[in-house]
Amino acid sequence: MTDVQMDYDMMEEMGRLFKEASQHMEDLTRAMQDIATRLEDGALQGRAGQIFAEALRNNLASRINALQAKLEELSMDVYAAMTDMYDADQRGASGFGD
């Protein structure tokens, strides 16, 4: 049987970084929406401005949102794996306590 070891500090850092990256994606989406609004409000008017703003809002935003959701999912997966492994370590160690 293979021994499984986990560096809990490293796993916690990994989960935190995924969560932080997810937050950056959310910030990026807000900034992009602001840019699209500015374009529509005068920086780039007419059909070209409208098409570009729609591309930002619809195409790019949906892809950034999908990436944000995946990063959030990875963060939760890392924390769940870390918790499961910690619980298993505790159960295994409890058999040697008495």
Lay out the secondary structure.
Layout: H1 8-43, H2 46-94
Helix pairs in contact: 1-2
Largest sheet: none
Name the poorly predicted regions: none
Supply Rg: 22 Å
| Oligomeric state | single chain
Q: Count the strands?
A: 0
- Identify the overall geometry: rod-shaped
> β content, as a range?
under 5%
Q: Topology as H/E string?
A: HH
Beginning-to-end CA distance, first to last residue: 25 Å
- List the total number of helices: 2
Structure class: mainly alpha
Taking all residues together, what is the mean pLDDT? 86
Q: Please give the share of residues in helix.
A: over 70%
Structural features, described:
The protein is an all-alpha fold and 98 residues long. It has a domain at 18-82. It has helices at residues 8-43, 46-94. The protein is rod-shaped and about 75 Å long. The model has no long low-confidence stretch (mean pLDDT 86).
Features:
rod-shaped; mainly alpha; 98 residues; 0% strand
Write a compact overview of the structure shown.
This protein is 87% helix and 0% strand. By secondary structure, the chain is mostly helical.
